Amino acid sequence: MIQKIGVLGAGTMGAGIAQLCLQKKIPVILYDACAEPLCAAAGRIKEGLLNAAAKNRISQESAEWGGQNVVYAKSLNELSSCDLVVEAIIEDLPAKVKILSEIEKLCPQAILATNTSSFLISKVGEGLQNPGRFLGLHFFNPPVAMKLVEMIRAPKTDADVFEEAKKFVEESLQKTAVAVKDTPGFIVNRVMRPYYLESQRAVLGGAGISELDLAARMIGGVPMGPFELMDLIGLDINLAITKTIYEALNCPERLKPQPIQEHLVSLGHKGRKSGKGFYLYKDGKLIGENPEVAVAAPGDGDFSDGEAWEMVIQAVIEEAEMVLKEGIASRDDIDRAIKLAMNFPQGPLEWKKNANPL
Ligand SMILES: NC(=O)c1ccc[n+]([C@@H]2O[C@H](COP(=O)([O-])OP(=O)(O)OC[C@H]3O[C@@H](n4cnc5c(N)ncnc54)[C@H](O)[C@@H]3O)[C@@H](O)[C@H]2O)c1
Prior knowledge:
The protein is of the alpha/beta class.
């Protein structure tokens, strides 16, 4: 039974996963290689627990319990009593392989998991003596608020290890688990690639970025159009994920990184965080379109906004159909994952069914 959790890496995701466990009254040992992020995580977790109590999401007593049941560890040895260790260090394959093989020796009975976004689970676990007790647990940011966890079963993951981890995710953390095969981008990052790429192709064909974002919201009912979403995620992070998936799937034309985004990233226009992305921002507020988009995309087609949106959502539906056909996840899990991760009003496969009810 999973009763004590170790988390490796005290950054955005590690601290978030730790807070989530504490809110569910599961003791945590949080480790980082550096003292500074560990100290920052302690402040963020304390504040997060207090905020959750102030908003009545947890009781005052639970917030206090959380503060008393987290250990900020500077040595991996301190994690030896954990039943599950979730690795959430930087997205660097050799660093992940190394730390997991170290923790495997210290925790001979524990289930080990990685929160990697872009590497295959089998690659991250390739230094393990016993890959049977290793799987992917892909949390979304922020882990406390996001309902979804993608659970990735690598070819060598033992069935009972997967089931025990699933029980923990669903019953102890009260999250929605979707089961995914160990393939590039899992469900969400793979199915959503065309959302970002096809919209840029539409702009190359003459569609406007704010018009397409508006059509996505007004016609599609989604919370954010593709360009405002890329600006929020960070154009550089989004491009890196695209490149990894594109290369891992042997460079299919439909998933090819797009020149507009590459041009913007090369200029340091990374989205909201740098004040310039597809849009321009002042004091955190969107003030207009970035003129550099037109430099990379002097589109002169005659797309209507509705046609551009149709082209984008159709490409997302087709990617979801491929994921289904490739046996990566079930129909329900694909739809569930996209609805929960993206706040879409329906999943891509439901979208198709509802558009063509016969
Ligand atoms: N940020 C997201 O939205 C998000 C979402 C899902 C998954 N992920 C994945 O989660 C993981 C962590 O991402 P993040 O955004 O929290 O990163 P981050 O940069 O915020 O934090 C990474 C932490 O790892 C620590 N670290 C680096 N090398 C280490 C080592 N060898 N040993 C121990 N600690 C080490 C760093 O000091 C840092 O505190 C990555 O694999 C990422 O792909 C991120």
